[in-house]
Amino acid sequence: MSHDVILEAKGLTKEFEGFTAVNNVDLRVRRGSIHALIGPNGAGKTTLFSLLTRFLSATRGTIRFNGQDITRAHPADIARRGLVRSFQISAVYPKLSVLENVRLGLQRRVGSSFEFWRRESSLHGLNARAHELIDAVGLSSFVGHTAEELPYGRKRALEIAATLALDPEMMLLDEPTAGMGHEDIFKIAELIKQVAANRTVLVVEHNLNVVAHLSDTITVLQRGAILAEGTYADVSNNPAVREAYMGT
Ligand code: ADP
């Protein structure tokens, strides 16, 4: 595996009682890139995400992250290695404030290290870092609001901040702009670009404008298999993609 490939799946297959949801997928994600996964409903995008983060076990195939075989690793172990999936809104604690939600993520990374918690400066550092992240996702004016009080688009931003608090080397984002209005979509797209400045991002995204704007590489899935791969120009000019996905 070449050094600039951070995540590599080979022959990844998931069968559900005879139905093949992901079929022999080879995927290589370049370090530092924004890689989009697109395809019609039911193409297998979410299943592929779950396989990569080990929320589901593959029927066949291998996964390597940073050169190490993670095919059978525990999901928590994968997160510790730096591959983190941004959860659906439900993973943000609704009754906790924006600050508390982000700080919780930061605390989780620190764990229960006695040396850390013994120092008063650690707590100040933690708070300062939480405020930095909150600033970065544009939530400064919502710091004291509970998560459930936030408008929809802001909740997604909080979810990204809570994921960033874990300082992952690579983030998997599952439809970050789903259900958003135009203005929020634009904000989240900008946020993802910013997040990706020093990370790798793999994103499932339906909005093709966002995909075109963000992605270095796009993989198109259809019925569980890879239909095409390349830049936005490559895939949008691919006749098979136009026919199968864009309906032209
Ligand atoms: P996408 O995210 O691209 O919309 P999914 O990965 O959710 O696609 O689903 C791919 C296919 O696998 C769908 O046909 C879906 O019905 C099927 N599928 C997903 N999860 C399960 C499951 N747990 N059991 C059986 N079939 C499933």
From TrEMBL:
Keywords: ATP-binding, Nucleotide-binding. This is ABC transporter ATP-binding protein. It comes from Imbroritus primus. The lineage of its organism: Bacteria, Pseudomonadati, Pseudomonadota, Betaproteobacteria, Burkholderiales.
